[in-house]
Amino acid sequence: MYNNSRKDLTSEEKKEKTRKRIRKADSSRITFIPADEEMDFYEDTSAKYVALYARVSTDSDRQTSSYEMQQKYYSNPLRAI
Questions:
Q1: What is the pLDDT at residue 1?
Q2: Cα maximum dimension of the chain
Q3: What's the pLDDT tens digit per position in 17-37?
Q4: Sign of the C-alpha dihedral computed for residues 6, 20, 24 and 4 taken in this order
Q5: Cα 29 from Cα 26, distance rounded (Å)
Q6: Which candidate in 9, 30, 54, 63 could, as Cys together with 70 as Cys, close a disulfide (CB 3.0–4.6 Å)?
Q7: Cα dihedral 10, 16, 38, 30 sign
Q8: What is the pTM of this model?
């Protein structure tokens, strides 16, 4: 068993080990990709694309209208929030 195994390190020791590895990295080979700006979906009024997947899983007579009911439920404009 190794004394320096990652399992034996504390959380802070693991973080410091990662920081040291990053500091040693060749910066010419690193591409920085900034995070996307966080979006507020409740205030954004731009049009969105959505998709609906409706299906009936059996041939049971009890599910004869299931597909149509799913379409009607999700097509109802009053459902829009």
A1: 46
A2: 67
A3: 888 888 887 878 878 888 888
A4: negative
A5: 6
A6: 54
A7: negative
A8: 0.34
